[in-house]
Structures are given as C-alpha cells and as structure tokens.
Amino acid sequence: MKELTKAEEEVMQYLWQLDEAKVAEIIEQMPKPKPAYNTVSTIIRILEQKKFVDYKKQGRGHIYFPLVSKDEYSKASMNNLLNNYFDGNLKSMFSFFTKKNDINISDLEQILKELKKDQNE
C-alpha cells in the first residue's frame, strides 16, 4: 500500500469520518484557516491516482468515498513503522514506546488486559 503525505492523510481522515462527501463538505469539516478549494480538490485527485478514493457523479459534481478503510491503512502504516524503524521486531518497538512515553506497570497491565480481551473476541 502506498504511503500518504501528511496533507493526503488529513483529507482521508475527514473522508473516513464522513464516509462520502463533496470537496466542499470535506473543507467544511476542516479547522480554520481552511485550505483553498483547489488545494483539497488536487489532493483528492492524487488520492484517486493512488487508489485510495473513488467517486460517483452527482449532477455536475462528484461525491468522493474511500476505497481503503481506516483500519487497512492503519495496519499498513504500523507495519511500515515496525519494518522500517524496528527491523520488524515488535518487542523493540514496544520497548521504544514504553521508554519514550514513560509507561508505568499499571499502564502495561491495562494494555495486556485489553490485548487479552481482543484475542478472546
């Protein structure tokens, strides 16, 4: 899966929230100062080329929708992070985040409890 730029990922975040939207509706959700219509429209076209977004015609305009789910992209991003920065070693990545975020034992226990719950579902 191709990686997204920060701007592309930001637009995708809004599109994932909305499920489908016109460019103007995406911009409406963005904080001020809002980007120019042409800027967001260009990003959407790039996302189309990268096969992250498609559209359906509505009148003279387009309604855009994601082709890649947020979960799919998150999983691919985490795998890239794991492989590119931690040589695919999950233990190294977890150790890094534990040290950098000053996680205590009760936090680790809570994380383990959540992981066990997820495995049982």
UniProtKB/TrEMBL annotation:
Keywords: DNA-binding, Transcription, Transcription regulation. The keyword DNA-binding applies. One of its GO terms (biological process) is negative regulation of DNA-templated transcription. GO terms for molecular function: DNA binding. The keyword Transcription regulation applies. Signal peptide: none annotated. It holds the Pfam family Penicillinase_R. It comes from the Bacteria. Belongs to the BlaI transcriptional regulatory family. This is BlaI/MecI/CopY family transcriptional regulator.
